[in-house]
Amino acid sequence: MAVCTSDFVVRGNIRSVLEDGALRAAVIKVSATRVFRQKYALFTGAGRAARRGEVRTLLQCGVKPGPGSFLFTGRVHFGEAWLGCAPRYKDFQQAYAAAKAAQQIPCELPVD
């Protein structure tokens, strides 16, 4: 599961999405509501509600801003966060509960 091996695991909302043509990537600005893990200081700010950061993903993924909470996981390459997966948080909770019930999770993550 990506939550066990990623450099960052963050629950949050998409504030905006900008296209970076030079990188052929989308830059996603995230307001983090919960930082489960980050190996580097990617999501920073004063207080829990004020943590902000950015992640990148390929343009072909078609990420768009919109309502809802997501689980962002991925790797850091040359100091930049690259998105591996971003399911809606409620969908992640269902998949996590099913994997936990089947004892297929190599790590624990405190989910709400």
Automatic annotation (TrEMBL):
Task: Tell me where it resides.
Answer: Secreted
* Gene Ontology annotations of biological process type: glial cell differentiation; positive regulation of axonogenesis
| UniProt keyword terms in alphabetical order | Disulfide bond, Secreted, Signal
**Coarse class of the protein's main subcellular location:** secreted
Care to name a GO molecular-function term for this sequence? hormone activity
- Tell me which GO cellular component terms the UniProt record holds: extracellular space
Sorted alphabetically, which PANTHER family does this protein's record hold? METEORIN, METEORIN-LIKE PROTEIN
Which family does the record assign?
A: Belongs to the meteorin family.
Q: What is this protein called?
A: Meteorin
Q: Which organism is it from?
A: Liparis tanakae
